[in-house]
Each structure stands twice: as C-alpha cells, then as structure tokens.
C-alpha cells in the first residue's frame, strides 16, 4: 500500500520533469527585417535564447544580431557549428554575425557552450 | 575451532576479496577467511574464544583503513534495506524538479549591468552557484563528497583542501588572465570534453551511491576502483579537483574569465575571480559539508541513495547538454 503511494509520487515527479524539459514558448516573434537588401535576424541572449525558433527568407544576404544585456549565464558563450562560430559574447551589447546567403531547408542552429540553451533559424 | 559468518560492507571490486582475505589471514587467530562478494559475507574459521561481536569489532579495526567493515547483522537491512530506495527516488526527483523549476522560472536572470567589480562578481558567483552550473560543478561536488564520506576518508580535511584549492586557483588564474589579457581557459571543445568527463564521473558515482553496482554486483574493472580509492587518500587530489573546476563548462565562469582578461591587470583579474569563487563557496560548502554531516547521521543510507538519484539526474542532464554543446546530438531541451 505504502509502495503504491510512492510509485504515484515518483510517477508524477517524472511527469513534472518531462513538462519542465519539454515546455516552453512556441510562438514566433517578429524578429526578422530586411533593410537595403540585407536580412537581419535579432535574437536576445539572456537565460536562454529568445525567440527559440525563427523563420527567415532564404537566398538573400543575412546577418544575425545577438543582443546581450547583463548576460553572464551560458547563453553568453555561443556556438554555431555550421559556420564555425564560437565566442563569449560581451556582457552587454550587440554582436553581428554574418551568415552569408543561407539556402532553403538548411536550418541554422546555435547552442550555448554547455549545451542547455539553443535556438534554431529556419530558412525558406 | 569456530566458524563465523560476517556481513561485509565496502566491497566494490573483485580485488577487494583478495585484499580482505589477505588482511584477515594475517591475524594469528584466523585460520581461514573466505569472502563471498555476491552475498557480501566473509566466512571466518578461528580458534579465538572471543564472542562473535568482539570478533567483528577486532577484525573491522584491521580492514577499516581500506574502507571495509564487518558486522554481525547486515548493515542497511537494520535501517530498512530495500525500502530505502523507494524513499530515495521521490526525494531525489523532488530535488531535481525544484532545481529545474528554479532554472525555468527566470528568477536567476537578474540583470547585472555596468562594470564588473569584485562586489558584482561576488553576486554573480552567488547566482551561478544555484544556476544550471550547479548541475555540473555542484553535481560533481555532491557525488564526490558523498562518496568520500561513504568511504570514511577524512572528509573534513579533504573538503577544506578542495575549497581552498578552488579559491586559490580561481584567484591566481584570474590574475594570470588579467595579466596575459588572453583567453586561456576558453577553448570550447576542451571545456566541453572536460564537462563530459565530469558528467560520466557523476553517473558512475551516482549509480554507485544508489547501490546498483553493489546490488547486482556489476563489478567494475577492479583497477578503476582501486585507482579511485588511491587518489581519494592523496592530499593533492582535492586541490587539483578544486583547480580543475576553473575549466569546467559553466557559462558564468566563462563570462567571468572574459571579464578578468579584459580587466587589464593581475590585481583586478585576481580580485574578480576570487570574489566570484567566494560567491559560489556557500552553496558548494553546504553541499560538501552537508554530505559529511548526513553521512555520519542515522539517515546516512537514505541520504546516500537520495544523493545518488540527484547526481544521476544531473549527470544525465550534463551529459546530454555536453553532447549537444559539442554538436554530437541535437539539443534535446531548453532550460
């Protein structure tokens, strides 16, 4: 009898962990703008990256702007493997990263140094 | 001639059998000794007239330095035996849930603007010590502390050395960063691999604390545990591990390293990193000395198993994150 209670407690804790890990905002914010033929994608880095999923146009010159604001956590150490970018971002400021001309269906993934925060940009 | 069977604790490896048998057979009054690793028992033939309890005590004093104890009654069973794990799993999971809710809540994303001074470094250290960095640095400290206390190594001295090693090396390396003005500690791949090693150590120790290795007698290659046991007793080991935490993957540590090397002088880098390490001290000291006091209390078996569950959880988290950080697997989660 006692064991049944414990199993229920264990089960609900596991579910809680699952919700914590899987949960998160899914809405996409308007963070892409095109100025003078160059596409700018802005992502905030602080306690994770926001927005986590962005959609942008393919086949035009694109720059990624990472904004930090008193960021000391892992999201300040950014790695984007596909373009060989890895850097500790300044604690406060904007970092511009040239993405060249991205192709469609080749999403760009950025991840923080320890790997617990990430973002992805889809091009279409 | 009398024949007694004792329960033995601390047998982690195949080689333990040989060691215990050798030590016991050295005693004049012991005619024969045979260890059964599976049952965790020792069968002893003796011509001693001592009672079984006295004998257990006398023999324990011989093998205690190697981390083994003999008892008449099976230890663990006296305090609940297998029931303990059923209490330990929810306790451990509850800690994990609280920890990750804390991360998710955003409470820790306090903005600290302006110039980093030793004071702000100290505050950042305080935040870092309860942040996701705790998963790797704290997890490692907790697992090592629990293991050390469990193995009855002189734990207070070991923990003091660890924390001193950590404070001193952070300060000195911070000073060096300020002097050189270069990012020596910031090779991503290097820290990520170090992080993977740390998470594997956590998993191994976590499983060991929970008792998986003991129960199913998954005896690891004996030299691994002998190696652990040997380095546990060395003075410089905790110092070196304290030093090593400087390079463990932790966003906060890495940010502070950048602040230190852009600070421009030995003294300012020294102060910034020292203040940061000092900020992380309360939490880490709590983990290590807390383990020690629990380990010597009456809830020790429950504590070890709960700590094991926590450490396994953090180890899995650190391992998956580390693999994602290295680009080996896709990031599975966002905390």
Automatic annotation (TrEMBL), chain A:
Annotated EfeO-type cupredoxin-like domain residues: 14-116
Source lineage: Bacteria, Candidatus Nomuraibacteriota
Stated name of the protein: EfeO-type cupredoxin-like domain-containing protein
Domain of life: Bacteria
Pfam families membership: Cupredoxin_1
InterPro entries: Cupredoxin (IPR008972), EfeO_Cupredoxin (IPR028096)
TrEMBL record, chain B:
Chain segments annotated as transmembrane: 84-102, 122-146, 167-186, 192-214, 235-254, 266-290, 302-329
Matches recorded under InterPro entries: HMA_dom (IPR006121), HMA_dom_sf (IPR036163), UreH-like_TM_dom (IPR039447)
Gene3D superfamilies tied to this protein: 3.30.70.100
Record's keyword terms, sorted: Membrane, Transmembrane, Transmembrane helix
SUPFAM superfamilies: HMA, heavy metal-associated domain
Record flagged with keyword Transmembrane helix: yes
Pfam families: DsbD_2, HMA
HMA domain mapped to chain residues: 2-71
Listed GO MF terms: metal ion binding
UniProt name for this protein: HMA domain-containing protein
Organism (species): Candidatus Nomurabacteria bacterium GW2011_GWD2_39_12
């Amino acid at each position: 009898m006692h064991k049944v209670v414990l199993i229920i407690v264990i089960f609900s804790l596991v579910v809680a962990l699952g919700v914590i890990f899987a949960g998160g905002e899914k809405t996409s914010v308007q963070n892409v703008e095109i100025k003078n033929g160059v596409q700018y994608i802005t992502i905030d880095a602080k306690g994770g990256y926001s927005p986590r999923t962005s959609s942008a146009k393919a086949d035009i010159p694109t720059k990624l702007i990472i904004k930090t604001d008193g960021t000391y956590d892992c999201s300040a150490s950014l790695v984007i493997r596909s373009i060989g970018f890895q850097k500790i971002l300044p604690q406060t400021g904007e970092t511009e990263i040239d993405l060249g001309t991205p192709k469609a269906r080749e999403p760009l993934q950025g991840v923080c140094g320890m790997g617990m925060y990430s973002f992805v940009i889809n091009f279409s | 001639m009398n024949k007694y069977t004792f329960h033995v604790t601390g047998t982690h490896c195949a080689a333990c059998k040989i060691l215990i048998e050798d030590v016991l057979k050295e005693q004049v009054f012991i005619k024969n000794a045979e260890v059964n690793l599976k049952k965790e028992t020792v069968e002893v033939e003796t011509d001693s007239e001592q009672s079984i309890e006295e004998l257990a005590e006398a023999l324990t004093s011989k093998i205690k330095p190697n981390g083994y104890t003999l008892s008449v009654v099976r230890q663990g069973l006296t305090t609940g035996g297998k029931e303990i794990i059923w209490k330990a799993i929810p306790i451990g999971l509850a800690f994990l849930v609280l920890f990750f809710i804390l991360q998710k809540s955003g409470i820790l994303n306090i903005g600290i603007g302006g110039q980093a001074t030793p004071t702000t470094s100290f505050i950042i250290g305080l935040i870092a010590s309860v942040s996701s960095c705790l998963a790797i640095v704290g997890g490692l400290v907790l697992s090592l502390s629990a293991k050390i206390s469990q193995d009855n190594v002189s734990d207070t001295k070991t923990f003091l050395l660890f924390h001193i090693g950590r404070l001193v090396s952070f300060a000195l390396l911070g000073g060096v960063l300020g002097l050189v003005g270069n990012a020596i500690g910031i090779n991503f791949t290097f820290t990520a691999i170090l992080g993977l090693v740390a998470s594997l150590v956590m998993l191994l120790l976590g499983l060991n604390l929970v008792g998986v290795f003991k129960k199913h007698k998954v005896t690891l290659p004996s030299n691994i545990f002998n190696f652990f046991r040997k380095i546990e007793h060395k003075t410089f080991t905790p110092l070196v591990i304290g030093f090593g935490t400087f390079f463990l993957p932790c966003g906060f540590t890495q940010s502070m390293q950048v602040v230190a090397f852009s600070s421009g002088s030995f003294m300012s880098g020294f102060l910034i990193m020292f203040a940061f390490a000092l900020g992380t001290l309360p939490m880490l000291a709590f983990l290590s000395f807390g383990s020690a006091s629990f380990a010597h209390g009456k809830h020790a078996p429950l504590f070890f198993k709960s700590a094991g569950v926590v450490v396994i959880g953090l180890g899995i988290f650190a391992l998956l994150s580390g693999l994602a950080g290295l680009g080996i697997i896709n990031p599975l989660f966002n905390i």
